[in-house]
Design goal:
The protein starts with a helix and ends in an 18-residue tail after the last helix. It has ten helices and ten strands. Helices cover 50% and strands 21% of the residues. It is of the alpha+beta class.
Length: 290
């Protein structure tokens, strides 16, 4: 207390007060002093500190309670939205510009800007909806506009995904809200897939069924329950069509898994002497008696 009293009453205290009260800019109700700069810096650092502590808390909570990582990140990003808005409001108040006055005086400007950047605002609002409703979270495998990709990051305006070819794609958040999006990760059960094979007539269909089941039974990425199954889908004019159905949790790399299964099917058919169908054509020769 004695030190505080000395600072406020001594020449040092008077000089410090004079330094902090020094005016840098005065324009209408805006009054920026040296002390105002310190306040603005403290508001910014305080916001960053709170966000950093909250981020650590969310990560620790997610590890202890086994909360989905995507949901934890969504909670942090929503908090980031709110805190940054509060930070801007406090900064405006600190320089003497009430937020109500700022909004009222800038209404016409905002309307003009809004007409020019409607898509930007739509994307930002869509980003908030995505984060709050958690329809799409980091790590999800989604299908949008015929493209299957895994979500890497969700930002205020855009979402970053990478495809099965490891190509990074930036998607506007508005696209994920307005268009039909298939979220494969929302399905907690294994997903069913299939591959199609065509076999020549003359082959025992039950032998084909057994060979298909055998080709897949040792694959670790195929779940055992529900078990794989085979259906004779069609008796074509030239061949029989079989579908091999299987369930897997490997949603993102399913095309690679299908390729591995086709290799195993080809080997199983070779061992069993089963012939794949191939295109056939008949040629009729017309003899001219003249």
């Amino acid at each position: 207390m004695a030190l505080l009293s000395w600072i406020t009453t001594s020449d040092f205290g008077a000089g410090l007060k004079s330094f902090l009260d020094y005016q840098l800019l005065v324009a209408g109700k805006v009054n920026i002093q040296v002390g105002t700069i310190f306040i603005l810096v403290l508001i910014y650092l305080g916001t960053k500190l709170i966000l950093n502590l909250f981020k650590k808390y969310v990560k620790r909570k997610a590890r202890k309670t086994k909360v989905d990582t995507g949901k934890a990140i969504a909670a942090y990003q929503i908090a980031e939205y709110v805190l940054y808005i509060l930070m801007v409001v406090l900064m405006l108040q600190s320089i003497g510009l009430p937020i109500t006055l700022f909004v009222a005086s800038s209404a016409a400007l905002f309307i003009g800007i809004g007409l020019g950047v409607q898509d930007l605002f739509r994307d930002i609002v869509a980003g908030f909806i995505i984060l709050s409703e958690r329809t799409v979270t980091v790590g999800d495998v989604v299908e949008v506009a015929g493209m299957v990709a895994q979500v890497k990051e969700i930002h205020w305006r855009t979402t970053t995904v990478y495809t099965r070819d490891d190509i990074v794609v930036i998607i506007p958040n508005n696209k994920l809200v307005r268009e039909q999006v298939v979220n494969w990760s929302q399905n907690r059960l294994p997903t069913r897939f299939h591959i199609t094979v065509k076999v020549d007539y003359g082959t025992d269909s039950r032998k084909v069924e057994a060979a298909l089941i055998k080709s897949i039974e040792d694959n670790r990425e195929v779940v055992k329950i529900p078990a794989p199954s085979v259906m004779l889908r069609d008796l074509n004019e030239n061949y029989m069509v079989f579908n091999l159905y299987f369930f897997s949790r490997n949603l993102f790399r399913i095309e690679r898994l299908k390729s591995d299964i086709r290799f195993d099917v080809e080997q199983a058919f070779r061992e069993e002497g089963i012939r794949f169908a191939f295109p056939k054509s008949e040629v009729h020769l017309k003899q001219n008696n003249n």
